Batch of 4 targets.
Target 1
Amino acid sequence: MAGSARRKLLLMGRSGSGKSSMRSIIFSNYSAFDTRRLGATIDVEHSHLRFLGNMTLNLWDCGGQDAYMDNYFSTQRDNIFRMVEALIFVFDVESKELRKDIETFVLCLRNLYEFSPTAKIFALVHKMDLVVVEKRQDVYRALMKSLEDTSAMFSFKVQGFATTIWDESLYKAWSSIVCTLIPNVTVFQRHLQTFADISEADEVILFEKTTFLVISHVTNVPSPGFRSDSTRFEKISNIIKQYKQSCSKLRAQFQSLSLRGSDCTAYLDTMTANTMIMVIMSNKTDSRGSTDLLGNSEANAEGDDSFAGEAENNIILANIKIARKMFEKIEMMNPDER
Amino acid sequence: MTMSADEMHDGHTAGPNPSPRIVMMGLRRGGKSSICQVMFHNMQPLDTLYIESTTAPTTSVFSSFIDFAVMELPGQINFTEAMIDAERIFSTCGALIYVIDSQDEYINSLANLHSIILHAVNANPNINIEVFIHKVDGLSEDFRLDAQRDITQRVTDELLDDGLVNVSISFHLTSIFDHSIYEAFSRVVQKLIPQLATLENLLNVLCQHSGIDKAFLFDIGSKIFVATDSSPMDIPTYEICTDFIDITVDMNNLYAVDRRPKTATRTDANTITGRADSSSNGVKPIPQGRPIGSTSRLSNGVILYLQQMVKGLALVCLMRKESMPKIALVEYNIEFFRDALEQLWLIG
């Protein structure tokens, strides 16, 4: 597609810090377990990833061994650091030579300052699972503090994330990174809000289809029923990613999922060719269902529920169908023309 | 309470201990504790590397649709000397699981197994002997079958020499790194359920009349399947069904009202919690409140359907997409199936 916007992302960090592992998990459907098979990255691995209709992520996975690193900062300098949209620098939290890592980071910033001063900087403090739970916050804060101090002189603002491939924190970080690169993310947000209002949904979440990163979400009713779990979006990404993997064992992809949960009803369906939408409705009749536990009266209540559920089900699916065209249009909006 | 009802239903399950017991034995470092941890305490398979060696008999009680206890005997103790109460243990247990480490020389295990079988059968002629040929993840596909054939041959030959022909003995290839251990355990537990034939029959009827290709009755907590219909089963189908239970329960828990009493305050949301929350604190909570259900459509025309039944059981079905327009009828039939299950466990 001629008008597609290319975004160059640099993925950097010392060798063995987990750059390729996270790339494989997010973009190539690896499980955390599978990343053990990955070898060292030689030089730079380029991957071109279509993200949404009009965007291509050019991910430059830069091998972190010293020999390559020296090259990046000398001979390949303008090749590497030109036109960079975002730098993702991965810190190994267990690194023995943290000072050297920070020096490399500063070197990156210096070059970016010269070649692409508008680049966004992300620092991922990775392998957090290796730190004891109580200390994680402190370790992360200390490292971020020193990064902010060093980056201030280049007038870059560093956004940091504590991540590990073993839980959903990785999805959190990458969702945030990718969202800053989507130009019309506010348009998505606005229309998603309208959709949620019309459907009287408690919560609506929009995912990218292949990576299952969260693009946008709207919460209308933070009802007390919701566990106030602020990581739930990433958890959903993680859960669905696992499900996609197990579906691939049957040589199939999953298309939709509807969950009649104990306190809510959730629908996950294809929105456009590149996105999926999840709609969460709370059970309006919940107070009754949870209090009575008598077998026979529950059977009656259930009969009503399932009837109401059927109607609701169809309404939501119809809403999604109608909204599809609108969202396709937003997606194809050319960011460069706006 | 349940088992007392069952006992009234069919009197022959009588015994000093009401819940059927499974005794797990094998030489040391065979993988017994790992199996227990992975099956009943949701431990990650990789973490089992760090389990300490078991030194005393341990029992994990496990209750859901049916109560049973798994008793694990450490491999170190010399069976014939130390265990004077062997008689008592065997006479009350329904199944004996013997774990053989297939990555090791198993000749010693076989001699040990043989003497145990003699004891067990002597004490309890109805005991089911289940041999788990374990850790097969390290063996190649061909070698697994060779090992199974070899072990089966040796064990049955020795039993024949002793003139024991009516011993109920079966062999399973297992590994904690895939679904085989769940499948094997399911088979073991199924033999201990007196209602198995009825359940299978019910599932058959349900499948025939609702356009269902394959139906499983799962225990949600342990992912053991209690019964399935009589159509042939393949492993991928079974795997996707267990995964489907996982994602349904996980998703539901994200949006469920927390009905458990508040224990510890949750850690700050920004800090990274260890592994997935649910796995660290043992078995996944079985959903409370309205019975959960979910439906998923796959691109190859398969529909996965899950509906929670009574007693922490869930019905998981595979259907073709052609049945989807008639889903209301299917659900109507499933209601009858649920009624039947309720009656089955309330008899007496």
Target 2
Amino acid sequence: MRYHTPTSFADASAIAAGAKGTLRFLAGGTDVLVQMRAGMVQPDDLIDLKQIPGVDRIERAPDGGWRIGVAVPGIVLGAHEALVRDWPGVVEGMNLVGSTQVQGRATLAGNLCNGSPAADSVPGMVAAGAVVTVTGPKGSRDLPVEQVPTGPGRTSLARGEVISAITLPPRGKNGGDAYLRFIPRTEMDIAVVGCAVNLRLEGDRIVEARVALGAVAPTVILSEAAAKAIIGTTLDDSALEALAKAAEGEAKPISDKRGTKEFRIEVAGVLARRAAKIAYDRAKGLKA
Amino acid sequence: MSKIHVTTTVNGDPVEFLADPRETLLDALRNHLDLTGTKEGCGTGDCGACSVTVDGTLVCSCLMLAAEANGKRVETIEGMAGEELHPLQRKFIEHAALQCGFCTPGILVAAKALLERNPDPTDTEIRYWLAGNLCRCTGYDKIIRAVQDAAAEMRGAA
Amino acid sequence: MARDDVKTGYKLIGTRPNRPDGLDKVTGRARYGADFSLPGMLHAAVVRSPHAHARIVKIDASKALALDGVKAVVTRADLPTGLTGEELNLQDNTLAGEKALYDGHAVAAVAATSALLAQDAARLIEVEYEVLPHVTDVDAAMAPGAPVIREGVADYSVPEGMNGNVARYMEFGHGDVDAGFAAADIVREQTYKTEATHQGYIEPHACVAQMGEDGRGEMWVCTQGHWYIRRMCASVLGIEAAGLRVTPSEIGGGFGGKTTIFMEPLPLALSKKAGGRPVKLVMSRSEVLRATGPTASASMDVKLGMKTDGTITAGQVFFRMQGGAFPGMSPIGEALPCAFACYDIPALKHEAVEVIANRPKAAAYRAPGSPMAAFAVESLVDEMCRELKLDPIAVRLKNGAKNGSKSSYGPVYNVIGLQETLEAAKAHPNYAIPLGPNQGRGVASGFWFNHGGETSVSLAVGEDGTATVMIGTPDIGGSRASIGLMVAECLGIPYEDVRVNVVETGALGVNEPTHGSRATFASGKAAVESARQAIAEMCRRAAADWGIDAEAVEWKDGAAHPAGPNAGKHPPMTIGEIGSKMGSTGGPISGHHEVTAGGYGASFGTHVVDVEVDPETGRTTVLRYLVVQDAGTAIHPAYVEGQYQGGAAQGIGWALNEEYVYGTDGRLQNPIFLDYRIPVASDLPMIDTVIVEVPNPGHPYGVRGVGETGITPPLPAIASAIAGATGARIRSLPCSPPKVLAAIKAKG
């Protein structure tokens, strides 16, 4: 295995484009090293992105949004007060990944590119409308987060392409987001179901909403039906009931070692209701 | 397969070694530097027995390549005691917070990192901070008590 | 009450001094299995079957051997032939013969100059398999038409007409069960299932071994019993036991899983082929989960008759247990006697069959068989208590075994503490805490026989009056501290003046492993006998000095004293004075005791748990947990509590989340700690303990053994608490959220 430490994304992209065999990028390494240890992946080339200037930074974008470097670990996101104030749901999703130790290394970009349908940080980013910047041999392009994973372990990135930044939009006024997942233990598990809700209020009424469901399909689902169920409502009981029904209707899970299909569908509705309430309270400024 | 020359600081001592690019920091600590206090319980970041700090951040040394430690500051269980034991080490013995002791180095390193950030944690905060450190012998009860007692002593001493 | 609070006349027993190995363990200096290295050492890796059941057509290691730095490959062809019985089973499990019998079964091993190179080489060993039909579930393995995975496993006990995977049959009982059921007001019958679980010790198996062409060798290994390792390795490799010297490392947990061999013969065989260079072999976590010894999975029918006042009139069980692809490993012989061990019931019938399946060879796991049996019987007792609106502790007090009861499995109980644990649980504040919505309380009792076993201990008095004790039972949970306390108590010297060492196979007679909760009981008992021998000799030395009869000398407070006024006026002669002169008064002073220790006493426990269940997700939170157990005498109460808490935590894991999940392809789906979900710190509350002390008359200080009983009650107690919280009864462990939610919804 060749270990590369490029100092620019252009170099990283060039190394990747020229690599012939199995290739992996290394940010936090909390997925890649596990796969190597298990013998699932034996990379011929491993490209460590952490020597590239700026990858460890969180910066306020000119429009008020946030630009997050690809090597920012969860523990740094969680400690960034202004970011947490704006996007608590995105940060809490990331902070649910693994242990304290894993938080010291794991990144949003890595969690996204690993391509797991159950990745905890992805529904929050999708609900937030996050965008990734991709650097490739032909230059850079921007892509909504939901267009990156294409199935378990797969992404839409072409050979030679690498995510060079993640951008969160400006939070704006009267908005709130939240992420909840279901796991059998209290920590350390892969999500059996995940749900993120991002919404904006005018007065008590929801005027914008995005609802994303994790671990109930090959990729994260951005559910228009679930969003519609609460837009225009004050999140009263009937809206919550409609939201749950919509989430259940969108979920297309499988049964596996972590949960049954029926369970996942049922719990998708439960989490959608619970996450929506938290996001609503946050938008009202009632809850951190 | 060409090896990588790694220069780093471990427990304050400058060290250098040649690492296979696939070797983890855990492998390097144990096999190249004879620091076998850091344990491998799973190799997948699920048990915390390999906990160390790198530039002050708590990590699993099994989830980091040795080559990535180049130029960093690594602290392991072997660096925890000075002339005297760290209060956590002493309290773990006094509270019988270890049985087989295999998870103990990782838990001590993790607990020390917690108390440096939060000198007065609740039981729940300790439990969630240590959720990535599996112990199969104790049921965690005496571990939580030992961490609380050490924290209280350290607050009093500060 | 813990001994701390009781006036006993003991000076040291019942106190909580620091454990002797504590300092090494908190500083990282303690050496576990993988921490040993030797000059010239090679590293090994193992090739394992990816199939649950397959004929091995061909193994081609030529590509691996062509790599620079690869020194040896071992396959079954390198092992001796002609073994029979359990020795053959051990050899078959070490390296597959004609067939791979489970996912993860070892097929070949390779040694190379680095661990990474050995792994690379293992990937280059080509194995051609012919995949065969497999079966992994206990009931499926017994069903008509199930593939028979090995011919001729049935022993003499199996009745005609049973499926070819049935290896053993057992039955026993007493009284007239039909009359008992007829006399009952209600008779209930249910089937319960438990999945296989793993001991989950955090330290993977590891050893360093060296063997020359003369078949003599040495091994450093993490094990609960190094004489067992020696005997089993010698059998598998066809060498003499005396030729192999085995030194136990510190052990990172065992819980029964390190009482046998899995890969230990491999580095010996590789070393021999590699010209005698030492070889290290360390298992990965997935190898541990796939290819060491989980516990059996079980399917169990229980029938009970009860009167409306709670009197149990009769009981009947039929247990089906699979312990992997080898006969003799499922604990039916323990599960059946444990089933009703807590009760005194006039009529009982026990039956069980052992079934083999395409799973790894099961090993002991903390009270083997007892947790499954308790789950079945205690769950049904609880179901009937709820139906008849009876207090579960009152029903157990009414029907529970007492001193002098004839046990369900035959022997008469001498002095036991079950009733005391029930009374203590009833009186504990936890039992009176009001429950909120979606909360429930479960109660269950549990039992373990405890064990004596082959034991050999030596003690030597030092020139300075300190004592060194050599024991052969590896210390897992603090037994060096408890044995040190007993020896110090006996000799009348400070605890700090006793050093207890776990010594290698060349230093003592044969010792059984640390299993059956026997270390503090049996090695402790032999250590006290050794100390008494040394005391007798020290009294003789003093007597000779004083010119009186040895019978006129008594030992107290670490010194020889004249026994009475007739013995003359002599100042006490301390152990230090005697030790300093021993070279000129007759030579070294030591004690030695070896015995197959009898007199062990059963330990009973009663647990009370409160849970809360999320009615929308089926997720269970343990709110509070109480363990009450009879220790006999708590030598070191902190480590007794530790056993209670650790056993409860393992039982909670078994009840809620832990299970072996096999896919339709027969492969283990969850061979990592991410998905084999043992409890993490944030899953558990503090675990309250009450140490009941009903001293065991069969031990000089009343010790019973406390390691195992504690894993038994959590399984039924938690299922019963969930039933209390939800009205839904889970009869198949684990009580995973999908199962609990489905049960809640099915109830309507």
Target 3
Amino acid sequence: MVGPTATLTPLARADGSASYQCPSTGSNILGSVNAPVELPGRRDALKPEDATVEVFVKPGTAPAGVSERYVEGIIKGVLGRLILGRERGYPRRGVVVTLATVGGESVGRGDSYLTLLPALLHTALLALLSASVPLSMTFSATVLAVCDSGDIIREPSTEQAAAAKSLHVLAFSSKGHLLLNESQGAFDFEAWEKVHQRALAICHGTSAIGSDGDIAMVEDVDGQPLEGTMRETIEDQVHRDYAWKIDAV
Amino acid sequence: MASAAPSVPPSLTLPPSQFARLQPHAYLLAHLSPPASSNQPSIRANGRAPSQFRVTSANTGSLTHTNGSAVVRVGDTTAVCGVRAEILPTDDIASWSVSHSSSSTNKRRKLTNPAQKPTQDDNEEEDPEDETHIQQLNLLVPNLSLSTGCAPGFIPGAPPSALAQSLSHQILNLLHTTRLVRAEDLRIWYQPPSLGSEDLERHNGSEQMDVDTERGEEVGKDKEIKAFWVLYIDIMIISLAGNPFDAAWAAVLAALRDTKLPRAWWDVDNEMVVCSDAVSESRKLSLRGLPVASSFCVFEADAAAGWRAVIIPDAEEEREIEESARKGIQRRWILADPDGYEEGLTQERVSIVVDKEQGGKGKTVIVKMEKNGGWAVDGKELKALVDISAQRWEEVKHILEQC
């Protein structure tokens, strides 16, 4: 299976940015983060000790509509708990995350955003890391479709997702917590547990945590765990950014 | 001045209502974790047990100008839902003649007789392609309005807030994924009279060769869809005290159960769809199942987490800690059906929509399961919440059947 590819800091003007391509769902997302910024509409009465997280999602071909509001709310819920909005310089200010669909299928009226959601979440995370926003944990997310036969398809295409019996998006933190679950379509709890297990394997590999507390990344049928892919993307970028320093030593 | 009575030190006790406003988090925490010496049970500030839902009532058919309507009250959250049906002629669908003319004369299309309506518990599978009409042609149009002065934060007459928009989307998406409304109920058919010679004598026998009454298998050959019913489902939250989704969805469900569509047929002479105004000829929608939504939130004891360096234990370690052994800041409670006060104090939300097969006798089917905003709820907790939602399904079914 071809894993996703990502680039950090493709945009020069934003504080942080990332572009992310997922070949299996065909999505291509460009994200930017500006933080901390002064928000004009912010009301101090609302949580004065915390930063405000704003998420904007822009679909590929149409102006943003009702379903974008919904997916913005989901992303805000995930990021809001991870961003340390009480660190120095952040309270009363805003973290603005903008995610634009550059390529891939667009989502119609009333359709779910679930196939695109992991790509959006990963882009937002990489852009936040690129902007050096303090986070308590990182995460990785995946989308799984359960067919009528009970098979689980990883990262289905739009057609596969439309034909599937149920569709699940799960996000796991770097410490193994279930951060987000969005499931729709008819299923029972046993089916969900299978999906949960598979998603955990995709995000974290099969053996979760080693004896020394490090997360062991083991490759299996699903290829490299997503958590590792994300980590490597960041490591590569850091190596490139500090090449002058590393070479000097 | 000096002769005034010696000043009494101001009292430091506060009435509970003031304490609730000044220190909302500590107030709820004190209710949920009473000191062991006081011998009081752990109870929420609103007097409910953690997994107890608010009193729910439903009333249908209140709005006379709609095809179906309902008022659902969950505690102090009240949702009014009206369903209006309008006719969408296929001539007005731009892509109709191209994409559907072939399938509309489909011979294998299963014809359902309105007289023997399929009951709710039969799980007969219709052609899945048949069902895409609802989604492709947007035959269901829900809209939720919060700009009614329902809560202090929502200004009346303001544009739809992000919450109202995402709730509208959730309801539309749930209507699509549960396939609650049958596409067959929304179609208006036309049976061209067969003028062939072999049919002539039969024509004399049955004078009332009507589209809706006569639906034999052999005369169904040239049947044509002439129009669709479009259902405009408008929901107004007239009072918001937390958990708008459960109330709104219950209102949609109750209103759709109440919806009656008049008998409609294609009038060849006028080339238009005409409706009968006889109530006895109207028919109800036959819905698929009865999905019921239940929402939960997670209240965490650790209010000050943000001020300290955040050290989050690994998920594996965390599973080791038994809920009873959790103490101090690690404690958390999963609260069912949060009211507005509790919603303001919590971040993690769980929303589960369940249905039961064969009208309650079969096994529980999860239709939608959402969890966001934290890491307290994992597989084990979700399993318990699905069981609570299944119990809630029984309650709501009882309430909806009575109204």
Target 4
Amino acid sequence: MKPEDILKIAEKEIERQKSYRFRINVCCSSGCLPFGALQVLKAFEDAIKEFGLQGECKVSRTGCVGTCSVGPVVLIEPGSYLYQNVTPENAREIVKNHIVSGRPVKELLYANEAFFRKQLRLVLRNAGKIDPLRIEDYIAAGGYSALIKCLTKMTPKEVIDEVIASGLRGRGGAGFPTGQKWNFVAREKNTPKYVVANLDEGDPGVFANRTLAEADPHAIIEGMTIAAYAVGAEKGYIYVRAEYPLAVQTLKEALKQAKSMNLIGNNILETQFSFDIELRLGAGAFVAGEETGILASIEGRRAMPRPRPPYPATSGLWGKPTLIQNVETLANVPLIILNGGSWFAKIGTPKCTGTKCFSLTGKVNNPGLIEVPMGITLREVVFEIGGGVPSGRRFKAVLVGGPSGGCLPESLLDLPIDYESLTKAGAIMGSGGIVVIDDESCMVDTAWFFTDFCVDESCGKCVPCRVGLLKMRNILEGIMGGEGRLEDLDILTELGEYVRDTSLCGLGQTAPNPVLTTLRYFKDEYIAHIVDKRCPAGKCFKTQKSVVEVL
Amino acid sequence: MSGVGTVKLKINGVEVTAYEGETILDAAKRAGIRIPTLCYLEGLSSYGSCRLCIVEIKGSPRLFPACTTPVSNGMEVITDSERLRKYRKMTIELLLSEKPHVCAVCVANGNCELQDLAREFGVDHLRVEREWTRQKIDLTHDFLVIDNNRCILCTRCVRVCDEIEGVHVLDIKARGKDSQIIIDMDDDWGSSKSCTSCRKCARVCPVGAIYVRDKPISETKDKNIAQFIISRRRR
């Protein structure tokens, strides 16, 4: 295939889509499937047949629009009517009223416009709009035109310069400048070079990368291929969690399609550039998502991090220069190539450009997957997009950055979301998890929960993470059980700083964050547990109480 | 090392010339500056797990293990500071508290690197609670014994078995706090067909986790074995 052929496919597909008056997009991603999305999809297809609308209505299975708590959701275009909690029974009603009579069913529509108002969907541009299993859909939406532009009009250096100009930073959590990383790999003489896309999203309550892969797998593949062209790599691996079966299946299918159209493989689009992508399934460890852990796992070894330097850019997979990027970073790349780095640099803040996807969960009215421009405040995310905490409860804290993030109190809600501000406050961007905590939750218990997670997930290689975290968890358990002493707080802080500063990899370096931030912002709760033997949220001491009651 | 370039760096304010690509630890050693180590052993690959050899590098808020960090031109390294001493002491405290290390009933008493370090850093009590693990003690081999309750997971034994003896009998199973050294596929040592009974694991074990039964430990330990064999092979 030649670049022109891809453009022809796009034209043909756009023509085809124009012939439909309505497009019914049924979300069939992991959030909606358990609520019967496939039955809803079938009910729509049946209803379309029943009313004889096959010629003017297109029913597709799509990815997620983000409103995961009200699934299954159905999006009807034109007009972007979003229906929530759709059942097979009311699918027919929607077709009858909305499509046939032209009257949208108001009582089934998603009424929370605020959820979308402050969002800016760049990475998730196609999520919920295209059928992830049809490459033609992606091409019609402008897909692979960035790759064509790179291969036909740009040199690798120009591609890198564009990415540098965009100011894009790694979305995996650390925020390293992407263009700079590409430069490091590009200037290495050692070959072959590799590109690794990290989709090992292991944090509890985080599902942004999964949603991206399920909704728009080709955006990842295109971004990865452009990256490979820029750094001169010939082989790529998408490392995806085995616990994401739908994402695995979608990516598998997408890779097959991209290969059949010569968008990956040998001599891509009849150019000199060859690049192939292979899928690697994660081995079920949180630490396998760590930069050097992922390399060990792909090589077939235990997912154990190793000290850096040497950095993967010099010595990565099998000792060869390797570019490792989170899939969200890669999905930004086609947009940067098409619209220019300066366009991208205008979004967000000067130091943190672009957008970031967040999984918004916890005690919040509108949980789901959101994408917001960098620099938006936590208050806007929690209270406007998220709609605040459920009525009758009071907001207490927000945990930003997954299990190794920090718990920030109400006084810090006006903090802009960017790498530096979050780090300064004791949290991290991390994988993009935002958990809202209300007054029903105990902060000591919250710190314990996430520390316990990291104790379980520590690989056991370095002493601070293996032993230090374990001791921290045990001290927290003592405090929660009423056996705490005030000196424990000093040793907790000392241990936390020690683990943060001396651990080998990012897991240990960030794991004490929940403890350190709760000690910083909610020390009174610790003291209440220790001195008054009382849990302000009424969560701890329950076991002791019930023993007393039994006696 | 002919043909290899040199770099100049400062260690504790003293100007040191080092080979390109060499680690901070090696450069410091040649300059007569001691950095405490535990998992590191000359002749074996560096593992970087014990974090005792962490050093400060001017211009970076991070700490770097000297055993794996290569030198670079103009680098300014600090190998000893109050913060480093505090962290090293904590590491030793944590290691002592992770397993039931009771020197009085340990074969390595008096010949133990962990004990020596505890003395050096003034660890005279533990501020964290001790774990009383009951992990496997394997007595099935004719003369080699492994007591996991004394193991500090430095993996010297794993590396010497793999890199010097070349058989890779030993490895780690499980992860985190449950990590444990195993023989073959977690078999009894006595039934191992791959073990050559070379005793190198017992020679390099810094504590009393692997030892030769009924032999005075001072005679069976030999920290220099890996380095000795490597240098002989290079001849």
